[in-house]
Specification:
Blueprint (H helix, E strand, L loop, with lengths): L1 H18 L3 H4 L1 H6 L1 E2 L7 E2 H46 L3 H14 L5 E6 L12 E3 L11 H6 L3 E3 L3 H8 L8 E7 L3 E7 L12 H15 L5
Parallel strand pairs: 3-4
Antiparallel strand pairs: 1-2, 3-7, 5-6, 6-7
């Protein structure tokens, strides 16, 4: 019974102190005599404990600030490259040249290990290229891509083996993660990486979407319809 009363009393004291954080200012001698247990060593005074807590918080804030700065730099570089790609697509004089510019940018500016473009219709003037496939939208090869070609939602991470086989052919086993951008009515853009952590579910796809939209608009300029 006494243990229960003591625990309830301790909780009440703690609650009261939380409501009156300036209480120890009135009794500085009490603040100096309070002992705070530490997990990794001897006990410490309240003042030194508070200082240590503040230092830990400061280190954590500094780490977060550094992460934010690093992310901002990455996003800035992506924004510049996406803008440059958009300008390059605007300068092309044909659908074939637009697709070539897209593939070159993904390989060079965005450092894709394996870049693949699948188009649903033949493109005049576009010769065979390692990064290009022309697959009719009714082909069974695209059965596993039906849903994403319908909704246009990007997919990042490890793709299913059947998707990898269609996109990368004989080099499918080299690809550990991919960024896949379906363009309804146009085809598929895939960037494969040898690194399994390069592309992952939940990563931001804003710039990927922007690149896809830029290509779709560029191709639409040469649509005979």
């Amino acid at each position: 019974m006494s243990d229960t009363v003591e625990k309830i009393g301790a909780h009440e004291v703690a609650a009261w102190l939380r409501r009156h954080p300036a209480f120890l200012k009135q009794f500085p001698d009490l603040a100096l005599t309070l002992v705070v247990p530490r997990d990794d060593g001897p006990t410490a005074s309240l003042a030194s404990y508070q200082l240590e807590v503040l230092r830990d918080k400061n280190r954590e804030l500094s780490r977060r600030l550094a992460d934010l700065a690093a992310n901002a730099q990455v996003n800035e570089r992506l924004a510049v490259r996406t803008h440059q790609l958009t300008l390059a697509l605007m300068k092309q004089g044909s659908a074939a040249d637009s697709l070539r510019a897209m593939a070159a940018s993904l390989e060079e500016d965005f450092a894709g290990d394996l870049v693949r473009l699948v188009v649903l219709h033949p493109v005049p003037g576009l010769e065979q290229a390692p990064w290009l496939q022309v697959i009719d939208e009714s082909s069974p090869l695209l059965a596993s891509f039906r849903d994403c070609l319908k909704d246009g939602e990007p997919i990042c991470g490890r793709l299913q083996p059947e998707k990898n086989a269609v996109l990368y052919g004989g080099r499918a086993e080299e690809v550990q993660s991919s960024a896949l951008l379906p363009l309804p009515g146009v085809g598929l853009i895939a960037v494969g990486s040898h690194d399994g952590n390069r592309f992952y579910p939940g990563m931001g796809t804003l710039f990927l979407r922007m690149m896809g939209e830029a290509l779709a608009v560029a191709l639409k300029r040469f649509d005979p319809a």
